Amino acid sequence: MAVDKLVQFVKEHGTTAQHKRALEVQLPTSPIYDFLEGRLPHPSHTYVRLAEITENEEKEQINREIGERRTRLGARIVQVTADVKREVYDRSSLEALYQSVIDWSNDDGVRREYEEKLLQRAYDTLAVLPPDRKPPKRQQVMKMAHGMVIIKHPFDLAWRIELEWTDIERLEGWDVGVLRDFVEYFPDKGVSKVLKGYLSSELSPFPTVPKQVEDAEEDRDISISLEERLLLMTVGYVFEDQPRHADSTRTVWMMPKIPC
Predict the structure, then answer these.
(1) Which of 68, 136, 193, 211 is the most buried (most CB within 10 A)?
(2) Distance set, CA 149 to CA 79, 142, 163, 179, 181 (Å)
């Protein structure tokens, strides 16, 4: 088919921008899509390819710009990196491409993968935005993370955002189900060790897991000694792998404030 030949020719002989434009001819937004639907690749495959090309393109652009600017007099690598990423992200179509993959794909695995990519990109964008532009992006990130937690999708970033960015007045304000699920899904995390020790201690305001549930779920067993609880909480706190926090206005009770 002529469209296939066009895409292949541009891929081999054209620029990256030309290749992307040729692929866009195969999308539902193209004026010829209605006439060729059924003979073109499924939109999800084309969106995946566009996302992959754009990812590589932006990675190269960021590395190139950082390399050029870091040699300027007075340049600070941290600030240069943030500035370059913000400029590239502001012009980027990657979030829209990720969302299109999610909307069009019939493969649950692909959708979950691109939901993770979308959250990670939104979080990375939030990290480099100036304070006056953070609020709407923060809300987007929190909404996506909460959605993953609701469906119990074990993506670490989503659960950490849910735990660390939740505003509560008292410890009782936490959803103990979320805390216990976090311990179950990420047992090797330092925060999980802290939580496991805390939830099984007399300090916890939450009821312990009923005995019958304990027996049925041995992997959630919280019948541990006082010494083991203290060790879990100490080791978990000291060796916790702190993620870069995208929102410097947030703190969390279980760990020190994490700067941007």
Answers:
(1) 193
(2) 33, 11, 10, 11, 9
DSSP 172: G
DSSP for 103-151, written as a single string: HH---HHHHHHHHHHHHHHHHHHHHHS-GGGHHHHHHHHHHHHHHHHHT
CA dist., res. 91 & res. 84, Å (int): 11
Task: Give which of 175, 148, 151 is closest to 159, Cα–Cα.
Answer: 148
Three-point CA angle 213, 215, 217, nearest 5°: 65
Residue of 119, 71, 127 lying closest to 99 (CA atoms): 119
What is the dihedral angle through the alpha carbons of 157, 162, 167, 168, rounded to the nearest 10 degrees?
-130
Q: Give pTM, 2 decimals.
A: 0.80
- Beta strands (DSSP E) in the chain are none
Coil, strand or helix: which one is 252? strand
- Three-state SS sequence of 177-197: HHHHHHHHHCCCCHHHHHHHH
Alpha carbon distance 119, 139 (integer Å): 12
Q: Which two tokens stand for residue 140?
A: 């987007």
Distance between CA atoms of 93 and 38, rounded to whole angstroms? 26
CA distance 100 to 118: 11
73 touches 23 (CB < 8 A)? no
CA 26 to chain centre: 29
- The β-bridge partners of 197 are none
- In the chain the first and final C-alpha atoms are separated, in Å, by 51
